[in-house]
C-alpha cells in the first residue's frame, strides 16, 4: 500500500506536472522550495544543501530551498547552466486559507516561466548586450526568422532560407531559439550558443498568429505595420505565444514589428564572425574582440547599438555617410564631444526600465531611471544644437517630456529604493494624505501631544492627559475633582465617559478614537498610499512609452557617434571614402585589436598599404611570406577596416577608399570539430566551399593557407583551383595568403591577380620579421628559422636544415621527389646532441672596453677611443 501525498505535496506535484521541463520554485513563506528530482538537480547546480522532508510512496522526499530575497542570483546560475525555472507564488494570504479550515493549503500558481530568452531583471542581464529570443518558422516553401529582446521591446523579422539560418543566428546571438517540434535544429542552435525550445505546430500557425499579434498590439489589423509573409507572421506569432506562456498574461511592452531585408546589411557568415572575432574572441570572452577594442560608448543602450552596427555593417550609402558626417562634426568640435560624453554618462538604461515597468517587475528605481534619462535628454538636446542633420534629428526626439519629468520630480525622492513594497520612495509634500499618515506613523507622540494641548485649552483643565494602555488603548484622563465639569454640557457632547476609578475619570472622543485607529494602521496605510501613487506613476510613464523609447534610441545614436569620434581622435583614425565602386585602397592600414595590444606593451604597430584595386585594378592579391611575419594580421585588418567603414566609423588608416562590400568571407585558421566528426582539413574545406558557392562580385574574401591540411601536392592543387575559381567565377576582391610558392606564377597568367609578400631579413643566421607588405613574391618560407625561434632543440633544427638542403638540391638537379632521397638521407636518423660550443676567446676590442666608464670620458677622449677601437677591429679582422 502506498502512502497518499499530503495536500501541500499534492498541490506541488500538480503544478510541477503542469510545467514539464522546468525546475519548480515553490513559494513557502520567505523561501522557494524544491522537491524530488528538482531538488536533486538544483542542489547540485547551486551547490546548496540537499535535505529531506516527509515521505512519498515510502521514500524520503529530497528537498532544498533558496531565500526569496536572494532568488535572482540563484536564477542566474540556473539559467546559465541550461535550466528553465517555473516560479510558483502564493496567490492568497495564509490567513485566508485558514478560514477554509486548519488543513487548507494556500493557493499557489505559476506566475512566470524563466527561460534564457525571456529575462528582464537587471541582475540577470548583461547591460551592454542584447538578450534575444528568436523563432524560426517554415510555411510551405517559405521560411523566416523573428527575434525580440523583451528587455528593450525591439521586435524584428526577416525572410530566412534554411541555409541562411546559421549566419543569421551568428549575427544576432540569441539566448533561446523557438522551433517547431521535430525541427532538428539542435546542432544549429548549439553552434549559435542558443538554447533550443521546441513548440507544437499550433504555436507556429500563421492564421492564429495574426490574431495573437493584433491582440498584443491592440489593433484590428497588422496593415499599419507593413506587409509580412505567412512565414514571417508564423515566426512572430510563435514569439507572442511563447511570451504569453512564460509571462503568464503579463505581456511585455513590444515596439512595432520591423521587417528587415538582408540586402540592407553586409552578409557575414558564422565562420567569418568567429575568425575575425568581431564581437567575441576565439577564447570565448569579449576581451580580444574588435568590439572590445573600439567600444567607447558610455551608455548601455549605446553599447548595444554599437554591437548591432558591428554585427551588421550597413550597405546603405546614405546611412553610412550620415553616420560618418555626425562623427566628423563631433571630431571637429572636441569641446562639444567632451560635453556630450559627460552628459551621456549620466543617462541610465531607460529601455530596460520601461520593460520592467510594463511587466510589473519594475520598482521605484526604474521610475527614477526614466526621470534621470529624460532630464539628461533635455540637457543633451541643448548641448547639441542643430549643426549636423543626424544629431539634430536625434535631438528633436529628446524633448517634449516636461510634464512627465515634472510629475516624477515632484513625486519621487532623490534616490528611490529598489522595491516598491518597502515604501519610502514618494517625496514629502507630494500627497497630503500620505504626509498625514507618515506623520502619524513617525510622529505619533507629537500628534497626541498637540491634541492634548487642544483639549486642555477647550476644557480649561490643565491636568488633563492623554494616556495609553493595552486594555483601553488611547484615553483622556483627568482627576475626579473635574468630573462634574467634564460630564456636564457642553463638554459631555465631545468627551465620552469610559471609566471612573477612585481618583481619575477617563474619557474618549471620536477624533481620538479615529486617531488611534489611524496610528495603529499608519504603517500599512502609508505603504498602501505609496503603492497607489506608484501605480499611477507607472501608468503615466507607460502612457508615454513610445516617446520615451524614441528618446532612448536617440540617446544611443548620439552615444555611438560620440564614441566613434572619441576613438578617431584618440587613435588617429581617418574618415574612409565609401562609394558604390569596386575600389579597395587602404594606405597605412592597421589592425585595431593588435595595435591596442602592442600599445599596452609599449610597442609600435607597423602599418601597411593595401592598394588592392590600384592601377590596372587587380582584384586578388596572392600573399606569400613566412609564418609569424604578419600575413594573417594583414588579411584580418583589411577585413576589419571594411566592417568599421560600413558601420559608420572612421578607420585605422591614413587613407581609405572602399567600394561597398556586399559580403565578407574569412577562412583564417581552423580547428577540429570533433563533435561532428570533422577534421581540421574537413572544416577548412567546408568553409572554403561555402565561400566559393556564395561569394558575389561585391564580396571581400580573405583566405589563409588553403590546402595545408593534406599532402603537399593535393594541397597545392586545391589552393590553385580555388584561386582560379575566385578569379574566373566569383570575380570578387580577395586577399589569398599561401605557402605554396609555385602559385606565384599565376600572377603573370591570370588577369587581376598580383603577388605581394611580407618582407623579412636574414642577419647572421637569424631571421628578422619586418612586418611590411610589399609587391612581389617571397623567395622561400623560412620555416626552419621559425621552428628555431619556437624553441625546437638545436639538433632537430640542424637536422631539418640538412634535410631541406638535400630536398632543394634534388629538386634543382632533377626534380627528384622526397621518396627518392630516403636512401641517401635517412629521415629517421638519430643524431647525438652536438657538443657544446667552446666559449669564444675575448677580442682585443672587448678587452679594451672592459671596465671602461663612458661617463668619465671627455668629448676628446671619447673621439680618440672611437679611432682606437676602429684600429683594433681592423687588425683583429685582418
Question: Care to describe what's here?
Answer:
- The protein has 30 helices and 27 strands.
- With 878 residues, it is an alpha/beta fold.
- It has 6 domains: 7-114, MutS, DNA mismatch repair protein, domain I (3-Layer(aba) Sandwich); 127-260, MutS, connector domain (Nucleotidyltransferase, domain 5, 2-Layer Sandwich), CATH 3.30.420.110; 295-401 and 544-571, Orthogonal Bundle (MutS, DNA mismatch repair protein, Chain A, domain 3), CATH 1.10.1420; 432-532, MutS, DNA mismatch repair protein, Chain A, domain 3, CATH 1.10.1420; 577-789, 3-Layer(aba) Sandwich (Rossmann fold); 844-877.
- It has a 7-stranded mixed beta sheet, with helices on both faces. Strands 3-4-2-1-5-6 form a 6-stranded mixed beta sheet, sandwiched between helices.
- Helix 11 packs across helix 22 (545-571), helix 18 crosses helix 21 (510-543) and helix 27 runs antiparallel to helix 28 (794-814).
- It is elongated.
Mean pLDDT: 89
Strand content: 15-25%
- The main sheet orders its strands as 13-23-24-25-21-26-27
The name of the CATH architecture of the largest domain is 3-Layer(aba) Sandwich
What is the CA-based Rg, rounded?
Answer: 38 Å
Describe the global form: elongated
Q: What structural class should be given to the helix and strand makeup?
A: alpha/beta
Low-confidence stretches: none
Let me know the number of strands.
27
Q: Could you give a short account of the major beta sheet?
A: 7 strands, mixed
Organism: Paracoccus sphaerophysae
Family: Belongs to the DNA mismatch repair MutS family.
Pfam families: MutS_I (PF01624), MutS_II (PF05188), MutS_III (PF05192), MutS_IV (PF05190), MutS_V (PF00488)
Function: This protein is involved in the repair of mismatches in DNA. It is possible that it carries out the mismatch recognition step. This protein has a weak ATPase activity.
Amino acid at each position: 500500500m502506498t502512502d497518499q501525498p499530503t495536500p501541500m505535496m499534492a498541490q506541488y506535484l500538480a503544478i510541477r506536472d503542469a510545467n514539464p521541463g522546468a525546475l519548480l520554485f515553490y513559494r513557502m513563506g520567505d523561501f522557494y522550495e524544491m522537491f524530488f528530482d528538482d531538488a536533486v538537480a538544483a542542489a547540485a547546480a547551486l551547490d546548496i544543501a540537499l535535505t529531506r522532508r516527509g515521505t512519498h510512496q515510502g521514500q524520503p522526499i529530497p528537498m532544498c530551498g533558496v531565500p526569496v530575497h536572494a532568488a535572482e542570483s540563484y536564477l542566474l546560475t540556473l539559467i546559465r547552466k541550461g535550466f528553465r525555472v517555473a516560479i510558483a507564488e502564493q496567490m492568497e494570504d495564509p490567513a485566508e486559507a485558514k478560514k477554509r479550515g486548519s488543513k487548507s493549503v494556500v493557493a499557489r500558481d505559476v506566475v512566470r516561466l524563466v527561460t534564457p530568452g525571456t529575462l528582464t531583471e537587471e541582475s540577470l542581464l548583461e547591460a551592454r548586450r542584447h538578450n534575444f529570443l528568436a523563432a524560426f518558422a517554415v510555411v510551405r516553401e517559405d521560411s523566416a526568422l523573428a527575434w525580440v529582446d523583451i528587455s528593450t521591446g525591439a521586435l524584428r523579422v526577416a525572410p530566412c532560407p534554411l541555409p541562411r539560418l546559421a549566419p543569421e543566428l551568428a549575427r544576432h546571438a540569441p539566448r533561446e531559439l523557438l522551433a517547431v517540434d521535430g525541427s532538428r535544429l539542435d546542432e544549429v542552435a548549439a553552434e549559435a550558443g542558443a538554447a533550443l525550445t521546441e513548440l507544437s505546430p499550433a504555436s507556429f500557425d500563421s492564421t492564429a498568429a495574426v490574431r495573437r499579434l493584433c491582440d498584443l498590439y491592440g489593433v484590428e489589423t497588422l496593415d499599419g505595420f507593413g506587409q509580412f509573409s505567412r512565414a514571417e507572421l508564423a515566426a512572430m506569432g510563435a514569439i507572442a505565444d511563447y511570451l504569453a506562456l512564460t509571462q503568464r498574461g503579463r505581456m511585455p511592452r513590444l515596439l512595432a514589428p520591423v521587417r528587415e531585408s538582408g540586402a540592407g546589411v553586409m552578409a557575414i557568415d558564422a565562420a567569418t564572425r568567429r575568425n575575425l572575432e568581431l564581437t567575441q574572441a576565439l577564447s570565448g570572452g569579449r576581451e580580444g574582440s574588435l568590439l572590445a577594442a573600439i567600444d567607447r560608448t558610455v551608455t548601455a543602450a549605446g553599447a548595444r547599438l554599437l554591437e548591432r552596427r558591428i554585427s551588421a555593417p550597413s550597405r546603405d550609402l546614405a546611412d553610412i555617410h550620415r553616420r560618418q558626417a555626425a562623427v566628423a562634426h563631433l571630431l571637429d568640435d572636441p569641446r562639444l564631444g567632451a560635453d556630450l560624453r559627460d552628459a551621456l554618462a549620466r543617462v541610465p538604461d531607460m529601455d530596460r526600465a520601461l520593460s520592467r515597468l510594463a511587466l510589473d517587475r519594475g520598482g521605484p528605481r526604474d521610475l527614477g531611471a526614466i526621470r534621470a534619462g529624460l532630464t539628461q535628454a533635455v540637457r543633451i538636446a541643448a548641448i547639441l544644437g542643430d549643426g549636423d542633420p543626424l544629431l539634430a534629428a536625434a535631438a528633436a526626439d529628446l524633448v517634449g517630456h516636461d510634464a512627465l519629468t515634472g510629475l516624477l520630480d515632484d513625486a519621487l525622492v532623490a534616490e528611490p529604493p529598489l522595491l516598491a513594497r518597502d515604501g519610502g520612495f514618494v517625496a514629502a509634500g507630494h500627497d497630503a494624505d500620505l504626509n498625514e499618515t507618515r506623520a502619524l506613523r513617525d510622529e505619533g507622540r507629537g500628534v497626541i501631544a498637540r491634541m492634548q494641548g487642544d483639549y486642555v485649552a477647550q476644557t480649561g483643565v490643565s491636568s488633563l492627559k492623554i494616556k495609553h494602555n493595552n486594555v483601553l488603548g488611547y484615553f483622556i484622563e483627568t482627576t475626579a475633582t473635574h468630573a462634574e465639569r467634564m460630564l456636564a454640557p457642553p463638554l459631555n457632547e465631545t468627551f465620552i465617559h469610559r471609566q471612573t476609578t477612585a481618583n481619575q475619570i477617563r474619557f474618549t472622543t471620536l477624533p481620538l478614537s479615529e486617531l488611534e485607529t489611524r496610528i495603529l494602521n499608519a504603517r500599512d496605510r502609508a505603504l498602501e498610499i505609496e503603492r497607489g501613487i506608484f501605480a499611477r506613476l507607472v501608468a503615466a510613464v507607460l502612457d508615454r512609452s513610445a516617446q520615451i523609447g524614441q528618446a532612448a534610441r536617440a540617446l544611443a545614436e548620439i552615444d555611438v557617434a560620440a564614441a566613434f569620434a572619441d576613438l578617431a581622435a584618440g587613435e588617429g583614425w581617418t574618415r574612409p571614402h565609401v562609394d558604390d565602386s569596386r575600389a579597395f585602397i587602404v594606405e597605412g592600414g592597421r589592425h585595431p585589436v593588435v595595435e591596442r595590444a602592442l600599445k599596452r606593451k609599449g610597442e609600435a604597430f607597423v602599418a601597411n598599404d593595401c592598394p588592392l584595386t590600384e592601377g590596372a585594378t587587380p582584384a586578388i592579391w596572392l600573399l606569400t611570406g613566412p609564418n609569424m611575419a604578419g600575413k594573417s594580421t594583414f588579411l584580418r585588418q583589411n577585413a576589419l577596416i571594411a566592417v568599421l567603414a560600413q558601420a559608420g566609423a572612421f578607420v585605422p588608416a591614413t587613407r581609405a577608399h572602399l567600394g561597398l562590400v556586399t559580403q565578407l568571407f574569412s577562412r583564417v585558421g581552423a580547428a577540429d570539430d570533433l563533435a561532428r566528426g570533422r577534421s581540421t582539413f574537413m572544416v577548412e574545406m567546408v568553409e572554403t566551399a561555402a565561400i566559393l558557392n556564395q561569394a558575389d562580385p561585391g564580396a571581400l574574401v580573405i583566405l589563409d593557407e588553403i590546402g595545408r591540411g593534406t599532402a603537399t601536392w593535393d594541397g597545392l592543387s586545391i589552393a590553385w583551383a580555388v584561386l582560379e575559381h575566385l578569379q574566373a567565377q566569383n570575380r570578387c576582391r580577395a586577399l589569398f595568403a599561401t605557402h605554396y610558392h609555385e602559385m606565384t606564377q599565376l600572377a603573370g597568367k591570370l588577369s587581376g591577380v598580383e603577388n605581394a609578400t611580407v618582407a623579412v631579413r636574414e642577419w647572421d643566421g637569424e631571421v628578422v620579421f619586418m612586418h611590411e607588405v610589399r609587391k612581389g613574391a617571397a623567395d622561400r618560407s623560412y620555416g626552419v628559422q621559425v621552428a628555431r625561434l619556437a624553441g625546437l632543440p638545436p639538433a632537430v633544427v640542424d637536422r631539418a636544415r640538412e634535410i631541406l638542403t638535400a630536398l632543394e638540391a634534388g629538386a634543382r638537379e632533377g626534380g627528384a621527389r622526397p621518396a627518392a632521397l630516403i636512401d641517401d638521407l635517412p629521415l629517421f636518423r638519430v643524431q647525438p646532441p652536438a657538443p657544446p660550443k667552446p666559449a669564444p676567446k675575448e677580442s682585443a676590442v672587448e678587452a679594451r672596453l672592459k671596465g671602461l666608464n663612458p661617463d668619465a670620458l671627455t668629448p676628446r677622449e671619447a673621439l680618440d677611443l672611437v679611432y682606437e677601437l676602429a684600429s683594433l677591429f681592423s687588425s683583429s679582422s685582418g
